[in-house]
Amino acid sequence: MADVLIETVEDRVATLTLNRPDSLNALDTELMRELLAAVRRVAEDDKIGCVILTGAGKGFCAGGDVKAIGKASADRVAGTAPKRSTTESRVRWLRRSVEASRILHEMPKPTIAMINGACAGAGLSLAAACDFRFAGAGAKFRAAFTTGGMPGDYGGSWLWTHILGPSKARQLYLIDEKRSAEQALGFGLVDRVYDDAELVAETMAVARQLAALPGQGVAYAKANLNAALTEGFAASLDRESLNMMLARNALVEARKAAEAAKAAEASA
Length: 268
Hints:
Layout: E1 5-10, E2 13-18, H1 29-44, E3 50-55, E4 59-61, H2 66-78, H3 87-97, H4 99-106, E5 111-115, E6 118-120, H5 122-129, E7 132-136, E8 140-142, H6 156-164, H7 166-175, E9 179-180, H8 181-187, E10 192-194, H9 199-211, H10 215-227, H11 233-267
Parallel strand pairs: 2-3, 3-5, 4-6, 5-7, 6-8, 7-10
Antiparallel strand pairs: 1-2, 8-9
Helix pairs in contact: 1-4, 4-5, 5-6, 6-7, 10-11
């Protein structure tokens, strides 16, 4: 049985590939669990300087596994759902799973959604959680929540409201248009569009550049930018001043360590 998530590392860039191509990488229970574990792992690994999230085959992520969701709903209607499957337990399970979006958004290193195909539902939310969104020219986008009677999850309502603004976020969710990659670029869903054949190479080039930056400076910059979403100007100035000095300290300590290593090598 193939792994539902593939993790590779090259040049300090970790690539997490959702690997359920037959279902356009729809999120089932196993993939949700593996994705959360993977993003936690790469977030804490100091050897990794940038993270790419993508999908196998022709899709990035089509959202939740509608077959599994439909079966669970049918079991509840028929009264055959497990007794332990209460509303409270389902809320706790989903809340644990959607931590993947928060970690992608807040981890102290850049994250890139490399959108290689269909991107909808929770997949669109996961893309929003990343710092950058690069799409192949053939990618397709849709919120795909309200048409099925669902309000959305994986943080999309918060993320897209901050990225697009309230008006466009409401258009995204409530009107629920299908968008091509170029239309998504014009609407603000993605940052760049590349030819499909060039998507991986172009994304990796940016990821390598990001991964080569001094890690502490990037971490403090992300902390400043994330905090700016909710705190006032004076608090932001306080945070920037503190993090600027902490970043300078980190650079000094790194230089001292390099000089010590150089001296030790010379005396050996």
